[in-house]
Amino acid sequence: MSRQTPTFQETADAYLNNTQLRENLGHATHTIRDKRADIVGEMPDWEHLREAGNKLKKRVMRHLDSYLLQLEASVQEAGGHVHWARDAEEANDIITGLVKQQQVDEVVKVKSITTDEIKLNEALKKEGIQALETDLAELIVQLAEDEPSHILVPAIHKNRKEIRDLFREKLNNKELTDRPEDLAEAARLYLRKKFLSAKVGISGANFGVADTGTIAVVESEGNGRMCTTLPETLITVMGIEKLIPTWQDFEVFMQLLPRSSTAERMNPYNSFWTGVTPGDGPQEFHLVLLDNGRTNVLADEVGRQTLNCIRCSACLNVCPVYERTGGHAYHSVYPGPIGAILTPQLKGIEDDGAASLPYASSLCGACYEVCPVKIDIPKVLVHLRGKIVDEKKRNGSLKAKLDPEHVGLKLMAQAFKNSKRYERAQKLAQTGQNIFVKDGKISSLPGYLSGWSAMRDLKPIPKETFREWWRNRNE
Amino acid sequence: MRISLFITCFNDTLFPETGKAMVRLLERLGHTVDFPFEQTCCGQMHYNTGYQEEAIPLVRKFIDVFGDAEYIVAPSASCVAMIHEFYPKVAERSGDAQLAKEVEEIIPKVYELSQFLVDELGIEDVGAYYPHKVTFHPTCHSIRMLHVGDAPLKLLRKVKGLELEELPGALECCGFGGTFAVKNADTSMAMLSDKMKNIESTGAKACTSIDNSCLMHIGGGLSRKGSDTKAVHLAEILASTEENQ
Ligand code: SF4
């Protein structure tokens, strides 16, 4: 296997030792987790809504080709332009080209993970264009030259004091306190000037409606509203899976999304636009439809449901693994449970880092329980593990095939096929363990199993197995 | 009633006491227990780690061994969940339509112990006696995959002398997760330390559950900490009586 990104295991350990990070994250995820549970609990028909969301998204995936063409036609009819991008490079070329046409060197951006996925800001920078993040949390991440660690709250790994220090330095505001109001005000003053002068705005999309051509962005701060209304030109980057069939389907998604993401009944700002409207808002609108691996995901019958995701981040907030390691351990703009299934499918499992992600889960199933569109994340994780092992058997290096887990599981599979062989293996394990047993327990194991014994004792294997007891009893 | 015991390889080898307790309990309740010797492993560890091809012969074996059984009961929620949730997938992968049919037929006959007692037999009071403070950890697979609900709690509430302490953060994963506990050992331990904190906060003498795999992890952590709290399988509590205390 080629190696591009570090594995989850390698990185997680460093984050686990960062107690400040674990405290910030533990606190933040538990708060939002409880709030979500309360606000979802208000809805007697929540399970029906989830079912409806799932069915709608499934339908979109089944007929994605025709819905996309329908969307293209409706956007064009409403005066917008549609561009198709096969991958990140194509998308970035299209967008930089469009920005350059406007002869500007600065654009304002609404928080958009899709643009993070294609590393748009870097591509723009190469062309001398500065992209200014206007979402408070994204701005924090950008000023800190950091990476987002959560889908919805990109700076969830930072606390107030850390943010105050950052703003004191970068926004040149030496007297700033760490009160949330003051921090927001400092950002507001800084951003307001930029909004008023920006000629080009760039956004992502929460939804694109096939039958009307409407694009929707929901948010909490109002910066998105400004980015999508003040500049003369608006460029929206949308993954091809963000489609919904009709305007009416908002009935389902506008209930599912805010309750699952920010634990609100409704988002404070819901912006919808359809092409261009003369005399009102941007007079030039471009929609860039991005594939970047999504059609490969679509081709996998089990993996396909990953595309249902509406990026609410509920799965991150309930995930016991994410809660402890934080988002950076996933080495992707999509962290947490959704990232663990999406990243390997988008990037391909030939990448060591991506292939480690489906294993970054205890399969506890908390994510599936909250997912508003019912993506069976544990099932997809196990499915991807299967693909990774199949690939290893086919093309794995000798080293991969000598890996103790691989060898061990192969041997055990042989033993389990036949109860006589299995009994012999039991006996072997009973004798084999003797060198490790001390004071009636095993406190240290070598190699692959050392991870177990570093912090957990193991009870030695008893002298008599259950089947031996049964045999003796019935003799 | 004739009950075929699926002990699971894990309990057979590492926790025979749980199997013995199950036999005592079911016989005490007047049932005939039978243990088909040919049984080995359900294939969960292989399947969940990605060795899905290797699970096919194990599913075949399970059908061969238990095909004629009336009731198949196991002391492990995650192994039963494997059968209910993933055996159809394994059968599908094998491309063997007969196997798929047999899997479909056997699934409704496979029960986890507490579910079998409460939902199938309709008993909550099994006549057990266990004079200790106990807390219960509902394992993820038992709750979210097998949906056993509060069957184990119903049984525990009826045990004489037992003082049941509610476990804070009960529904949070203990961090076991099969090979996850070894592959991502540090993350697994970070999860376990919070679970242990919650267990110890109850002051319970025993933390019980319906899966020895999670209990081995929890018990191993508690033992390393030098804690007084022990991990005990539910079957062992239910098998205890005033006579055999
Ligand atoms: S996978 Fe489900 S829960 Fe997670 S972000 Fe996507 S929609 Fe939300």
TrEMBL record, chain A:
Domain LUD: 70-289
Gene Ontology terms for molecular function: 4 iron, 4 sulfur cluster binding; metal ion binding
UniProt domain 4Fe-4S ferredoxin-type: residue ranges: 307-375
GO BP: lactate metabolic process
Protein name: L-lactate dehydrogenase complex protein LldF
Domain of life: Bacteria
Pfam family, one: Fer4_8
The keyword Iron belongs to this UniProt entry's keyword annotation: yes
Keywords (A to Z) from UniProt: 4Fe-4S, Electron transport, Iron, Iron-sulfur, Metal-binding, Repeat, Transport
Matching InterPro entries: 4Fe4S_Fe-S-bd, 4Fe4S_Fe_S_CS, FTHF_cligase-like_sf, Helical_ferredxn, LUD_dom, LutB/LldF, NagB/RpiA_transferase-like
TrEMBL record, chain B:
Residues of the Cysteine-rich domain: 4-83, 134-218
GO molecular function: oxidoreductase activity
InterPro entries assigned to the protein according to its UniProt record, in alphabetical order: Cys_rich_dom
Protein name, per record: L-lactate dehydrogenase complex protein LldE
PANTHER family: LACTATE UTILIZATION PROTEIN A, UNCHARACTERIZED PROTEIN YKGE
A Gene Ontology cellular-component term: cytosol
Pfam families: CCG (PF02754)
